[in-house]
Specification:
single chain; five-stranded mixed sheet
Length: 342
Amino acid sequence: CALDIREQLLDITAHTGGSVLLPCYCTDLQTKPEKFSWRKYDTNTKTQEEISSESGQYRNRVQLVNDHSPGNLSLLISHLTEEDGGEYWCAVKGSHIIFRLTFQEPPQSLPFVPFALVTVIFLHIIVAVVYYTSRTKGCTLENREQLLDITAHTGGSVLLPCYCTDLQTTPEKLRWKKENRNTQTWEEISSESGCTLENREQLLTITAHTGGSVLLPCYCTDLQTKPEKLKWKRPVEKKWVEIQIKSDQYRNRVQLVNDHSPGNLSLLISHLTEEDGGDYLCAVKGSHINIRLTLKGCTLENSERLLTITAPTGGSVLLPCYCTDLQTKPEDFTWKKRNRNT
């Protein structure tokens, strides 16, 4: 097994609490390496420690996705923590790939950390109250139209002050909203809010190789929120149709990776085929994400052209036929000869 993209450093970014796929392939996906290992660099001991699903830090959180292709050595890590960040090595005899895993801010509010490590954050919050004032008397907010700066501890509690100037006045209607800086919109806060998807209403473009694996990312902004209903869909004849995991097309090839975080709705697809390319929809109530999956397969050099080759009878001849990417293995190929009589 010779690794694809060997001897390189690949940077990968993920969310704490979510999942990540570290891609590692033999150039020939049907080749099984004699021996391979996944290791993580320990900055304290300056050594590489082998990763195992039986070890303490990674117990029940890591798995290989090589059920169908022995040369697919990719590692799936679920329920990510800050301690999972760092450098990983996928190594076979005479070849290796290095991954640097870093984390974005987790898509959830006020994550808990031990008090000894507490970090002070600054909340810049504008309080929005929608109210209807009658001709006689209504609610006028104290400090209205102002920006109040409040400091709090992660893992703790905070009181956001909001008063009518007359404390005996009841507003007809009240709403709390929080600014979503990604969409630059104000979103209503509710203690009964369901799952709101990260990167919702956006189109994410992902590229993968036929025969390999891919993780289609889909998260609730709060990873501990379980959506009432989740559907993964694909377009069929201009209609979105739900993906049936037990169908012949997907049987034993797809799985959700939400064992530890109910708000992690990501879909893992293994043993990719050309038919898997296209658009996908991750949908929950009132929110969805569009993902476009592009697959790199075999495109023939000089395709659709007629090549004229001359050779002597009784001798040998080489008929050249190549994929434009020599490291790409076609799913299937045939040689045919035209019968001029039929």
